[in-house]
Design goal:
Elements: H1 6-14, E1 21-26, H2 31-42, E2 46-52, H3 54-64, E3 72-75, H4 79-91, E4 97-100, H5 105-113, E5 126-132, E6 140-143, H6 153-169, E7 176-180, H7 191-204, E8 212-217, H8 219-223, H9 225-230, E9 243-245, H10 249-263, E10 266-272, E11 278-279, H11 287-312
Parallel strand pairs: 1-2, 1-4, 2-3, 4-11, 6-9, 7-8, 7-9
Antiparallel strand pairs: 5-6, 5-10, 10-11
Helix pairs in contact: 1-11, 4-5
Length: 313
């Protein structure tokens, strides 16, 4: 691994003592998605179960010189069928994580949120980018930039709590959540500032737990101590946030991609709020970002096993 990815290297290193997570890979029918699953298996992060048209998967493997001889294959006829059968493997206890292949995200998530056969919990499903930003000391979690288009205040309670739980499971000694807007003052004409204020009060009253939560904060005074000092913001979060909650999907997507393409950051993607972690990767993702996404899922699966073990005792 390159030295510039030390945050991701640390995540992957933490998985060395954890058995590979059985992972249903839905429709890995192109070189990118199949190689991503095989690479993650080679590093010891996941134990892939390849779900899709088996003849097509084998054809891609042969054409791309990828050895899949040691992996279990589950036959599915088309992309939606692959998603449904991958989810079924999780429901049957044969897989502890789900990974997106070459199908569309909405096809996979449609199977996940199906009320009868899906993987719903009481939580709203949301997405987090775990970003390795050059020059920034800690991994930076951005949510939600991929699933919830225009989340309501009620949705944001779960989005925030999902991100807090993720940050804690990844080993952060303190979770500092910034609720982002275009400004750091409450303005009745800017709805995101009102929602930020409400979320902070909900954290004060124990409706959101496990973190320091502050907002509204603009991006600069959320992550830059100098900017926070100039604005005279007295807060344990301002300038030190490790979780950034965006107003909507458009803002989050632009923020994450600007960090990736302008600042050289890598973005590991994970979906939370379902019964198991869901690995979402893009064809544009680097190898280290793909491996980091699998490492995050493995650490979450291990945390769930530990929690379940404590509950049984």
């Amino acid at each position: 691994m390159e030295g510039s990815h030390e945050k991701y290297d640390q995540l992957i290193a933490r998985c060395k003592s954890i058995p590979p997570t059985p992972t249903a890979v839905a429709h890995p029918c192109d070189e990118s998605s199949l190689k991503g699953a095989v690479d993650a298996s080679r590093v010891g992060l996941i134990a892939p179960i390849l779900v899709g048209p088996t003849s097509r998967i084998r054809e891609v493997a042969a054409k791309s010189n990828i050895d899949i001889s040691r992996f279990r294959l589950v036959e599915a006829q088309y992309s939606q069928d692959s998603a449904a059968k991958a989810v079924e493997l999780v429901r049957n206890g044969e897989a502890e994580a789900l990974m997106k292949g070459s199908l569309h995200t909405d096809e996979l998530m449609g199977a996940v949120v199906n009320r009868e056969t899906g993987l719903r919990t009481s939580r709203r499903i949301s997405h987090c980018f775990v970003m390795d930003v050059p020059g920034h000391a800690d991994p930076l979690i951005i949510t939600d930039a991929a699933v919830n288009i225009a989340p309501t205040l009620k949705d944001k309670v779960d989005i925030v709590q999902n991100a807090i739980d993720l940050c804690r499971d990844l080993g952060a000694p303190e979770v500092r959540v910034a609720i982002l807007s275009a400004m750091e003052t409450v303005n009745p004409d800017v709805p995101s500032t009102l929602e930020a204020a409400a979320l902070c009060k909900m954290a004060d009253r124990g409706q959101i737990t496990g973190a320091l939560v502050d907002g509204p904060l603009a991006l600069d005074n959320a992550i830059s101590p100098e900017a926070a000092a100039i604005k005279k913001i007295d807060s344990p979060v301002a300038g030190r946030a490790n979780v950034l909650v965006v107003p909507d999907l458009e803002a989050g997507n632009m923020l994450a991609k600007s960090l990736t393409f302008l600042a050289g950051a890598d973005a590991a993607g994970i979906v939370l709020g379902a019964k198991v972690p869901i690995i979402l990767t893009s064809r544009a993702d680097s190898l280290i970002a793909r491996l980091a996404s699998c490492a995050v899922a493995t650490l979450l699966a291990e945390a769930r096993r530990s929690t379940a073990g404590r509950a049984v005792r």
